[in-house]
Design brief:
This protein has about 400 residues and is mainly alpha-helical. The chain contains 16 helices and no strands. Helix 1 runs antiparallel to helix 2 (about 45-70) and helix 11 crosses helix 14. The longest helix is centred in the middle third of the chain and has 41 residues, at about 200-240. It starts with 15 loop residues before the first helix and ends in a 6-residue tail after the last helix.
Length: about 400
């Protein structure tokens, strides 16, 4: 990837498989809206209007997901589009079942809990509120039912967002808040709508609160951990020797494959040395020169290949910062991969006799990395001077780069 040949500015690509999953989410939503409309005997024109609104809303949510992903605003883990489809299906199933549950007692509190574990908080809130609006519309619900459901969704979203970033996700006070908020809001809104109360209604509200609290306590952590595990597994998948792109690199050039393995292993060791994401560094190191297989513009082609194969966003960022040609390293992992690749490339170009002495190798490491550091090349990476020195020493301690 030579800077003199790199003419095209970095572009953003959308993986085809992700587009297909978003279309599947749209189909699930469309079918569900038609189903609840038919279950409630809506007229054809009313059903069509609901369908049109669903189309618009699905487009807005899809754009929001893709925009947040491109801006690196999907916190904790990348949105899994396949798992998002499954969670959307679960949520619409709750809405469909809600057609047979008395008003005020549909477990809409569960919607944000299910969605927050797999996507951005804003997307989760938008989707949950839209489902609630659809349910209320087909039922011709009064304002207090709508207010009740919206309040429950807002509280659920707030609790889920908080607990997603919390170290302790089994707090008793949160469970109490979930139970009490469901019971109190449901009973208050029911009373204001009917101006009477029965013990049966109180029991229904208590059951709803218990269901929400149990679901959160038992399943929220499982769903969240599953999503994070899937995200971590993606690193292992794209590093597996049987992965398609790994085979493609090996078939393209054995020298490139050997170089990639060397950079990957050293990047992983260095990232581990400073507590950075070693899997991200290993993947970034292995695919750092991915664009060579496609030719010019190499960085652009590397990003396109990585995106079409649904690489984690942080790995794609490292590839986009190759050599600091378009952008300088913006993360410790990207800085590490650049440092390792520069050294491995330089040492590979020198003859084996020149590098036979460990003193010669050490001098190359010190001189090369010090030059880049003095130029401020890693200033935007978040790599502290102490971390830089530790990474440099870790590389010096390697017996041989050859």
């Amino acid at each position: 990837m030579k800077s003199s040949k790199q003419k095209i500015k970095k572009k953003e690509y959308i993986a085809r498989i992700r587009v297909l999953y978003l279309l599947l989410c749209f189909v699930i939503s469309l079918v569900s809206v038609v189903a609840i409309s038919l279950l409630n005997n809506l007229l054809i024109d009313q059903t069509l209007c609901t369908v049109f609104i669903t189309i618009v809303f699905s487009i807005v949510i899809s754009i929001s997901i893709m925009h947040k992903r491109s801006k690196k605003e999907l916190v904790d883990f990348d949105t899994s589009y396949s798992r998002l489809c499954l969670r959307i299906l679960y949520c619409w199933a709750i809405i469909i079942v809600g057609n047979f549950i008395p008003e005020f007692f549909v477990p809409v509190f569960l919607l944000p809990i299910i969605l927050t574990t797999v996507c951005d908080d804003m997307v989760s809130l938008m989707a949950s509120l839209y489902m609630v609006v659809c349910l209320c519309y087909v039922h011709h619900s009064n304002n207090l039912v709508i207010i009740c459901y919206i309040l429950l969704v807002l509280i659920s979203q707030a609790v889920s967002s908080y607990m997603k970033s919390s170290e302790d996700r089994m707090r008793a006070d949160v469970i109490i808040i979930i139970f009490s908020s469901n019971v109190i809001i449901t009973l208050v809104c029911y009373y204001l709508a009917n101006y009477h109360m029965t013990w049966l209604i109180v029991i229904y509200a208590a059951l709803l609160g218990t269901l929400s609290a149990l679901f959160f306590g038992l399943l929220f952590n499982l769903l969240l951990d599953k999503s994070r595990k899937d995200f971590t597994n993606k690193y292992h998948i794209i590093l597996d020797k049987n992965y398609s792109l790994v085979k493609d690199i090996k078939n393209y050039s054995l020298a490139e494959y050997t170089h990639a393995i060397k950079v990957s292993e050293l990047s992983r060791k260095c990232a581990n040395e400073i507590g950075a994401n070693e899997l991200c560094a290993a993947c970034g190191g292995f695919y750092y020169r991915l664009g060579k297989m496609e030719g010019e513009p190499e960085i652009d082609n590397a990003i396109k290949l990585a995106t079409n194969n649904c690489f984690p966003r942080d790995v794609i960022t490292i590839l986009s910062e190759y050599g600091g040609i378009l952008e300088k390293p913006s993360s410790p992992e990207s800085a590490i991969v650049h440092m390792v690749d520069v050294l491995v490339t330089k040492i590979e170009l020198l003859d084996e006799e020149t590098m036979s002495s460990s003193w010669n190798q050490d001098m190359v490491i010190y001189q090369t990395l010090n030059d880049y550091s003095q130029q401020g090349f890693y200033d935007n990476s978040g790599l502290s001077m102490n971390q830089f020195l530790r990474v440099r020493q870790r590389l010096v301690n390697e017996e041989s780069f050859i």
